[in-house]
Amino acid sequence: MSEAKTNVPKFASFRPKPNTPAPDAARASERTSERKHYSSREDGTREKDHRQRHHKRHRSRSKERTPDRKTEIEPSRIQPKDETATLFVVDKKGDEKNLVYGSIHRYSVPPFHRFGAGHVLGALPSTKIDRDYGDEKGIVLSNWRNFRSDFREKYVFSKLDRDKPRLLKICHEVESEVQEIVEQDFVPLQPRGKKRKRRRSDDADSFGSDHDERDYRSIYGTVKGKNQPLDDNLQYATESDSSGSEAGRTIKVDVFVRQKNVELSRKVEELPHDVEAWIALIEHQDALTRAQDDRRSITNAEIRSTADIKIHMYEKALDKTKSLPDREKLLLGMMKEGEKIWEIKVQAERWEQISKDNIDSLLLWTSYLNFKQTNFSTFRHEEVKEIFAKRINTLLEAIVDTRTGNPDSLYHQLIYVLLRFTLFLRESGYSELAVSIWQGLLEMNFFFPKSPLFQAEVIRLFSEFWESEVPRVGEDCALGWRHFVENEGASEAPDTLVDEAEDAINDKDLFGTWAAAERLRNRSSRAPARTMDEVIEDDPFRVILFSDIEKFLIQLPVQSEDLRILLLNGFLLFCRLPPVTALELEDAKKWSKDSFVNGNLLEYNMSWIGGRYFEITHEGSDEPDVVSSLNVPIPNNLVSLEMLFGSGVWPRNQSWRDKYSGDDNSPVPYKSIRNTLGQLAETHFADNLAEYYLAFEFLNEPATIKKISKNLLKKHPTSLRLYNSYALIEWSRGNKDVARSVFSAALNLHSTLSESVWSRDSIMLWRSWIWACLVDQENSAALQLLLSITDGTPNPDVTISPAVLLKTKQHLTSRRDYLISSGSSNFSVVYAQCS
Distance between CA 180 and CA 173 in Å, rounded? Predict the structure, then answer.
């Protein structure tokens, strides 16, 4: 019987390994040397990526498991390894977080060291890195060939100046002890913790002086005193506490800023209709965003998020506000913030809706118009023209509506819109249409028939007048619409006009001859043409029909003289002239400050500007020149008689011919402006208009001013302001005896005028005469005239006494107070100047 088999393990793994051939020993020694070489590398190579180390270990194991193959590899077939693939990385997309946080993530930058002793690859060989100006965020390249030996000595401490101050904060231990110190009845000279620490240090004598200079290998760590401020109660703030500029940035707001935000929010809740409180809260959001840290720049993401918050606040405030001035403030602020986050199309839609919802607000509509005119990416001439047309129609419908409470304000808006529209047309190249609109407006409001007419009849008669092509206002031999209606069209059409023949363009001087031809065409097309005129290239836009201007014509109320003067001021601003003197018309002063209206410097002759305002005056003298300091290209002051006639210290207004070097470069023909002012002063006489016309003639046509002044005085012999203007003209020309006789003759008209007119206008004569004497340093004559005001006539024999002085002062004061109470503030100012 055979013996049973037993399952005994054979332990094959403990068999002795066969002797390895020589190649295996060689490879083992190679791996050993490789491990030794790897262990002796620098510390920088030990921080390689884990995936690369794992891949290398895997390759080493695979070599051990791979059986030996005695295959010979030809040297010619060995491919060299591309080591540049691991040195350079191409990233065409970039990191979007760099735009959000404003800088590159510092841990994404691999460690490196500079090579080349300051030279930069791609820069000039003469430039090197200037380490005196560089910082962690950038470098500065300087030309070291121009290096001076004293340059570095001057900036020895420049690096210290560039170091940013480090913020300090109170230690947490001190903050915890503050409450205990407050509850005590004495003030300790130092914190308790420092005292206990000193006691422990006294007991531990074994440490000695070695305690302060602790070894860097000590388990207690290094001593912090060297990197901390001298005051033990303070410590330096960390970078996250001071700026918060790294990842996970949060807005750390100062306690004061936070408290103010709480107070403003509480005020808005208590007074929801207070617009100023809303605006203060909205503007405070910028302080919250910056967190009183002006050293860092606000990112684009923060700007957009803050603007979005502000817009929501503006919308909440608009729900609580009903008055128009408050809504204007809020809407303008909201649209200003909307520019930061909204696209152009969204802004245009918002502006259009705002202008429709607030039809009575000229400010909001003007802001919408400015947006459309200045947005060059979406600017279209026809779209802007349609905006003007819609606004004019809307205002006309509102005026016709009898429920409108104050139609004068609507007329003011309408005149301003027409002024902006005609300026827009002229600057767009349609000067003929712009001039025709103003001709129609002046004819309809200054030369209207005396008999009352219905609106339909007015349109029919004016259409017949326009289509007849008789001379219109501003043209030679123009008699006006009234004369045409009263004489049933007896006026004759003017002679046919022929444009100047332009020279042919020379190929040798292509641009010069082309520019001259364009200027000639522009000069010829400033005024509208008629159907029989011979124009260049038969331009159909040169002939303006009644249908072209019909929807832009308005007729002002007959009884409103102020509106007609305002319309005249609009025409003067269109012609680049100062408005008529009228203290009660505030709109004209506002319009003259509008950048879209007052663009005079763009049309002035550059040589005249350089010679007028950039010349050196008073060489070798340190005395200030008052006249030259007030002589500015665009004066921002009210036009007075002294400026119109140049009889005082104020500089005289510039001549039209001097501004534009004749008539070639002017926006409106000089002859047309002169004819318009003369025809208006003759047909529709007003004191302020007559003064303006005489001033214009005196500046531009001084040879004929005497004849024109006398003709006006013959037609209006009781106008004291005409006498005053003529006397100032003669005084400015040096004819002082003639001026004195004119002043005396005017002051002797007391018996021919009413008391109200005399007391209102006579003071203008006294004031002008007295100030003229003071400018010429005739002080005694000025004092005699001042004391003669109470008598009403000049008295050279008046004696100076306290009684006379008191009487004169009481007279001037009483007249001043009376005119203020009666609403004549402009004349009361004149009495105040004399008193």
Answer: 12
What percent of the chain is predicted at pLDDT more than 70?
A: 66
Tokens of 719: 């106008």
Confirm if 278 and 313 have CB atoms less than 8 A apart: yes
pLDDT for 42 equals: 40
Token pair belonging to 123: 């820069």
Burial class (CB in 10 A: 0-12, 13-18, 19+), 563: buried
Token couple for 199: 């006691």
Tell me the pLDDT tens digit for each residue of 88-143: 777 777 777 777 777 777 777 777 666 777 888 878 888 888 776 666 667 788 88
The predicted pLDDT at position 294 comes to: 60
CA dist., res. 820 & res. 760, Å (int): 12
| Residue 357: predicted pLDDT | 86
Q: How far is 264 from 256, CA to CA, in rounded Å?
A: 12
- In 3-state terms, what secondary structure has residue 746? helix
For residue 95, give the 3-state DSSP assignment. coil
Does residue 493 contact residue 470 with C-beta atoms inside 8 Å?
A: yes
Cα separation, 34 vs 43, whole angstroms: 17
Alpha-carbon span 53 to 49, nearest angstrom: 7
pLDDT > 90: percent of the chain: 21
Question: 256-260, 437-441, 657-661: which range is least confident on average?
Answer: 657-661
The number of helices, as runs of H, and strands, as runs of E, in the chain is: 36, 4
The answer to whether 721 and 761 are in contact (CB under 8 A) is yes
- What per-residue confidence (pLDDT) applies to 549? 93
Give, in order, the Cα–Cα distances in Å from 359 to each of 267, 383, 587. Answer: 31, 19, 19
Q: At what angle do helices 407-427 and 431-446 cross, to 10 degrees?
A: 150
What tokens were used for 79?
A: 């491919």
Please count the other Cβ atoms lying within 10 Å of the Cβ belonging to residue 373: 15
Closest among 738, 443, 208 to 726, alpha carbons compared: 738
Contacts of 486 (CB under 8 A, 6+ apart): 449
CB-CB neighbours of 371 under 10 Å: 18
In angstroms, what CA-CA distances link 356 with 342, 360, 391? 20, 9, 9
- Copy the structure tokens of residue 740: 């004195």
Strand 127-129 relative to strand 141-143, pairing: antiparallel
Q: How confident is the model at residue 608 (pLDDT cuts 50, 70, 90)?
A: low
DSSP 453-510: --HHHHHHHHHHHHHTT---TTSTT---HHHHHHTTS---PPPPPBPPPPPPPPSTTH
Alpha carbon 435 to its chain centroid, in Å, reads 30
Least confident of 87-96, 435-444, 518-527, 635-644: 635-644
Sole residue written with tokens 């009781």: 718
Picking from 129-138, 486-495, 525-534, 549-558, which range would have the lowest pLDDT averaged per residue? 129-138
Of residues 440, 423, 667, 432, the one with CA closest to residue 529: 432
pLDDT of residue 276: 92
Band (pLDDT 50/70/90 cuts) for residue 741 is: very high
Instruction: Answer for the pair 119, 128: CB distance below 8 angstroms, yes or no.
Output: yes
Whether the CB-CB separation of 437 and 422 falls below 8 Å is answered with: yes
- Mean pLDDT, residues 495-524: 75
Token pair recorded at residue 25: 């020993």
d(CA 498, CA 524): 9
Per the CB < 8 A criterion, the answer to whether 632 and 598 are in contact is no
Its pTM stands at 0.66
* pLDDT bracket for residue 560 (50, 70, 90): confident
Rounded average pLDDT over 171-194: 63
User: For residues 808 and 352, what is the distance between their CA atoms, to the nearest angstrom?
Assistant: 60
Q: Which two tokens stand for residue 601?
A: 């410097």
Cα-based angle 374, 376, 382 (whole degrees, multiple of 5):
85
3-state secondary structure of 279: helix
